[in-house]
From TrEMBL:
One of its GO terms (molecular function) is aspartic-type endopeptidase activity. PROSITE patterns: ASP_PROT_RETROV. One of its GO terms (biological process) is proteolysis. Transmembrane segments: none annotated. This is POK9 protein. Keywords: Aspartyl protease, Hydrolase, Protease. The gene is Ervk9_1. Residues 149-163 form the Peptidase A2 domain. The lineage of its organism: Eukaryota, Metazoa, Chordata, Craniata, Vertebrata.
């Protein structure tokens, strides 16, 4: 009940004989959640895997991905055997915020379905709709003039933006 993620088990035993990344199939098939393709997941290595010398490369699983989820691993301690049914990674599910923002509109990219490893389109979403904004009451003073406002603040390294 207290676990944040879902453990992934390796479907086969693997011997790592080089230090290049290698895909290992798991026993878990996507989609992560069946709520109309609005839940994706972040794949992360378990800390116990790192202690055994297994380095898991983090990855994102799209909400519309429909195949067995592989784990990409490598090691610096060769050779290394990973037995079948090893729990070396976990996935942490999260709501696809871009999908939630675009509900009812035409899909912006093709569905991933059974393809993997790669971008479906060169698009980046750098802003999201915020329901609870970091607003602060501030007073701006210029000489003898002053104004009190509720402001959305964004502090940068050498500049502050007030909206």
């Amino acid at each position: 009940a207290g676990s944040l993620g879902i453990d992934l088990e390796t479907a086969v035993g693997v011997i790592l004989i080089h230090n290049r990344p290698q895909k290992i199939p798991t026993t878990f098939k996507s989609p992560v959640h069946s709520s109309k393709h609005d839940v994706g997941a972040l794949l992360l290595g378990c800390s116990s895997a790192g202690l055994k010398g297994i380095l898991v490369i983090p990855g994102l699983i799209d909400a519309d991905y429909t195949r067995v989820i592989p784990i990409v691993v490598y090691t610096l301690h060769l050779p290394l055997f990973i037995p079948q049914a090893s729990k070396i990674a976990q996935i942490i599910s999260f709501q696809n915020l871009v999908s939630a923002m675009m509900k009812g509109s035409k899909p912006m990219r093709p569905m991933r379905r059974d393809t993997s490893f790669g971008s479906t389109r060169p698009v980046a979403y750098l802003t999201l709709r915020m329901h609870d904004r970091p607003v602060q009451k501030i007073t701006i003073i210029n000489g003898k003039e002053q104004i009190n406002i509720q402001a959305l603040l964004d502090t940068g390294e050498d500049i502050t933006t007030i909206s």
